[in-house]
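testing teh design pipeline on a random one, pls ignore if ur not involved
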C-alpha cells in the first residue's frame, strides 16, 4: 500500500470546488479510505480472469426478427383525424420553438 496522502484541498481545486475547512477535515479521511480500498482491491490476483464488461453473461432478450403481415396503409390512415396523401397530419406540439 502507498503511504502517499491525498491532499483533498488540491483535489478540490482541480475539480474547481470550493470547500470550507470543516468540509476538508471531513473529506480528507474519507478520500484516504477510498484510496486504501482501491489499493486493497488491486492486490487481488486476477491473472486467470478474462476481462469483461459485466459480472455475468448477458443474453439478448429480443425476439427473432421475423417478417409478418402488417396493417394495410389505407386501414391505418382511416383512423387519422386528418391526413395529407399517405401521411398523418398532426398538429404542431412544440410551442415557443424558434426556427
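output:
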Amino acid at each position: 500500500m502507498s503511504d502517499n496522502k491525498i491532499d483533498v484541498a488540491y483535489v478540490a481545486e482541480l475539480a474547481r470546488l470550493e470547500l470550507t475547512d470543516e468540509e476538508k477535515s471531513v473529506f480528507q479521511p474519507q478520500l484516504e479510505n477510498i484510496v486504501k480500498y482501491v489499493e486493497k482491491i488491486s492486490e487481488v490476483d486476477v491473472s486467470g480472469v478474462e476481462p469483461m464488461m459485466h459480472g455475468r453473461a448477458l443474453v439478448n432478450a429480443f425476439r427473432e426478427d421475423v417478417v409478418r403481415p402488417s396493417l394495410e396503409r389505407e386501414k391505418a390512415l382511416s383512423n387519422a383525424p386528418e391526413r395529407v396523401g399517405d401521411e398523418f397530419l398532426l398538429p404542431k406540439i412544440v410551442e415557443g420553438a424558434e426556427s
